[in-house]
Amino acid sequence: MKELMHVLPQDIEKESFRIIGEELQAMGVVLPEDQEPVTKRVIHTTADFTFVDSLEYTEGAVEKARELIRRGATIVTDTNMALTGISKPSLAKFGAKAVCFMADPDVAAEAKERGVTRASVSMERAQALEGPVIYAIGNAPTALIELHDIMERGGRKPDFIIGVPVGFVNVEYSKELFRNSGVPYIINFGRKGGSTIAAAICNAILYTMVKRD
Q1: Rounded Cα gap, residues 108 and 15, in angstroms
Q2: 44 is catalytic
């Protein structure tokens, strides 16, 4: 049986990251410096060390995301849960913001009329946003599929994708679409993911920026 750890509330996160680092070291895992805070925060969110192997970053992905945020990027999420989880004060420091169109009544009405998902309509709506756009997809594979279809039709290419939808239907397929697509990304290949992970990745990037900038 595990012994009770006496940790002050304000020190729990710090201690959690210490334990994560210790266990990674015991596993012989050395994470690339730029990816380390992101992967560790995902592990912190899930208590799942398999993300070390399944999370994939395009070259320079973290710095690319930082650059877009510094330019006032809009982060588009596919759930209000992810939207709620992203640190708004951190975004505001860079003139960036986060939005989600999923709960908009007109999005729901259009999706019903056309017989498509609200996620698909939301991705279409995001095409009209000004400035750089980062897509943080944690729930709906149809959002990733729609983004790829938009590209194929000659529409606006995503500036960056955080692709971590979770589930069993078209999840793995939707993620594979962006391999060799030319779009910078952080994607968790396989079935695992979720809105909390999408938010965790955004926050990991933002927190390193707040400390550095």
Answers
A1: 43
A2: yes
pTM: 0.93
Q: Is 212 exposed, middle or buried (0-12, 13-18, 19+ CB in 10 A)?
A: exposed
Q: In 3D, which of 119, 136, 142 has the Cα closest to residue 84?
A: 136
CA-nearest of 138, 183, 145 to 163 is 138
Domain total in the chain: 1
3-state secondary structure of 149: helix
pLDDT digits (tens, 9 = 90+) for 41-73: 999 999 999 999 999 999 999 999 999 999 999
Q: Residue 87's domain is classified under what CATH number?
A: 3.40.50.10230
Residue 190 lies in a domain: yes
Q: Give the Cα separation of 112 and 36 in Å (integer).
A: 42
What one-letter code names the amino acid at 15?
Answer: E
Residue 146 φ then ψ, to 5°: -65, -40
Task: Give the range of the structural domain holding residue 104, as residue numbers without chain letter.
Answer: 54-212
Catalytic position from the list 17, 20, 21, 44: 44
Q: Is residue 201 part of a domain?
A: yes
Do the domain assignments include residue 1? no
